[in-house]
Amino acid sequence: MRLAELSERSGVSTATIKYYLREGLLPPGRRVTATQAEYDEEHLRRLRLVRALVQVGRVPVATAREVLTAVEDETAGQVDRLGAAVGSLPHGPAPAPADPATATAEHTAAEVLRLLGWGHHPENPAHGMLVSALAALGRLDYPCGTAHVLPYGRAAAAIAEHELAVIEELDAPTTQLEAAVALTVLYEPVLLALRRLAQAREAGRRFGSGPETNDDPPHEAEGR
Amino acid sequence: MRLAELSERSGVSTATIKYYLREGLLPPGRRVTATQAEYDEEHLRRLRLVRALVQVGRVPVATAREVLTAVEDETAGQVDRLGAAVGSLPHGPAPAPADPATATAEHTAAEVLRLLGWGHHPENPAHGMLVSALAALGRLDYPCGTAHVLPYGRAAAAIAEHELAVIEELDAPTTQLEAAVALTVLYEPVLLALRRLAQAREAGRRFGSGPETNDDPPHEAEGR
DNA sequence: CGTCGTTGGATAGCTTCACTATCCATGATT
DNA sequence: AATCATGGATAGTGAAGCTATCCAACGACG
User: A111, B41, B109, B163: which has the fewest Cβ within 10 Å?
Assistant: First the structure.
C-alpha cells in the first residue's frame, strides 16, 4: 500500500507518518521507484503500536524509538532485551544525591524490597523512580514508611505474576517481547485508572456520598 | 522570608518561583513595601508540593493549578472537592467515539466494574482513561478481555482500601484533602516502579536470568 | 544624604517536543 | 500530453516550561 493508504487505515496523517519515518520509528517502505515506496501490513501494525505508545502510554517519540530498537536487538537474550527496552521507558528525574530525604527513601526502598524477597537492584531505572517518588513524599511529611509502601509492593507482585503468565502463553518470541513491552506500557493507564475508580468508590463508601452502589461484588467465577 | 530565601530553601530558582506566582500556583507573598514581599513556611510547603506534583507526578503546570484550586474550593463538600481535584488530573486522550475497538473496550470496562461491584460511572475521567487504554490494546490484538483486566481491578481495590485507611488517620480536613490528592499523584510512580521491579524479578524467575535471588520472602504471613 | 547592591514585577526570549505545511522533482493516470 | 498524486527535504508552528533582561523602588552603609 502507499503512504496515503497507510494513513487512511491507521487514522494518522501522512505528515505524521513521514515524521515517524524520519525519526526511525517506522522502517522505510520498500522502494518501488525512485520516488515511491510500498508499505505492508507489518508497517500498519507497527504504526498502530507507535501511536499507542506515544498517545496512550505517553512515551516520548525519541524514547519509543529506543524502546523498539532494544526489542529488536538481535545480539542479546530475551530477558536482557526486555530489560533494556523497559529500562529506557520514562522514569522521571533521578533522585537528588545529597538529600536527606533521598537517603531515607533509599532505606525504605531497600527494606521493602527485602521484605518482598526481590533482590536489591539499584541499577534498574525503576529503582531510581521509586526512590525519587518516596523522597518527594518524605519531603512533604506524607506517610511513606515501609509499612505504607509494602501494600503497593504486594499488589505489584500479584499484577506481575498475572502479567508474566499472560505473556508466556503468547505466540512467537519476537512477538512475545514486543508484547511484554506493549503490555507494560499500555496497562499502566489501565492500572492507574482502576486505582482512581477504586479510590472514588472507597471514598464514597467511607464518607457516604450520593447514590450508594452495591457492596458485594456479584461475581462468582471468571471466564477468560 | 524573601524570595531569595524561599528559593534557597526549596532548591527552586527565583525565576521559576516567579513563574509559579504568575501562573497562580503559589499565592502572592505579603506585600511589605511597594516592591518587596514576604513569604512564610506555608509558601515553602506549597512550593515543595507544586514541585513534587510537576516533577515527580508529571502533572502539567496548568493542571496543577486547577487541582490545587479545586482542593481549596470552600463551596463544596469533601468528597466533591476530592472528586473535582482528582478529576482534573491528566487522563490521556478521550476515547475515539465511533471506533469498534472503543465499543469493545466500553463493554469490557462495564463488565469489569460490574464484577468488582463498583458502580458504572462513565462521567468519571478515569473511566475514559480506562476505555481508551483498553481500546488501544484491543486495536493491537493484545489480550484485554474481562479476565485479563480483572486482576488489575482487584489489585486496585486492595490499594485503594489501604490508601483510604491511611488518609483517614491524618490530621485536619484541609490537610486531609490535600493529602488525598498528593498521595494519589505521588504514589503513582511508586506503584508503577514497583510493578516494573516485580516484572523484572518475575521475568528473571521464569526465564532464569543471572544471579537468582531468594525465592521466598523472609516475612511469615501477609496481611492482605 | 548619596551610592550601590538587592529585590521583585513585567516582558520577552529560549529550548524541547510533536507535529504540520510548503516545495518540488518524479511518477502515475486519463 | 496534461494533470494529479507521491514522497523526500526543509522549514515553520504552537504549546509547555522555564530563563534572562530590564528597571524602578528599597535599604544598608559610609
Answer: B41
pLDDT tens by residue, A81-106: 999 999 999 999 999 888 999 999 99
Q: Which of A132-136, B25-29, B170-174, B186-190 has the lowest mean pLDDT?
A: B170-174
Contact of A168 with chain B, judged by CB distance below 8 Å, is answered with yes
Kindly identify which residue of chain A lies nearest to residue B96, measuring between CA atoms: A11
B30 touches chain A (CB under 8 A): no
Question: Hey, where are the domains in chain B?
Answer: 3-56, 100-205
Output the pTM of the full model: 0.91
Phi and psi at A199, nearest 5°, equal -65, -45
Task: Determine contact, residues B125/A201, Cβ cutoff 8 Å.
Answer: no
Binding-face residues of A in 101-140 toward B, CB within 8 A: 112-119, 121, 124, 126-127, 129-130, 132-134, 136-137, 139-140
B41 interface with A at CB cutoff 8 Å: no
Among chain A residues, CA nearest to B78: A207
- Summarised one tens digit per residue, pLDDT across range B73-115 is 888 888 889 999 999 999 999 998 889 999 999 999 999 999 9
CB contact under 8 A, A224 and B93: no
CA separation for the pair A57, A50 (Å, rounded): 10
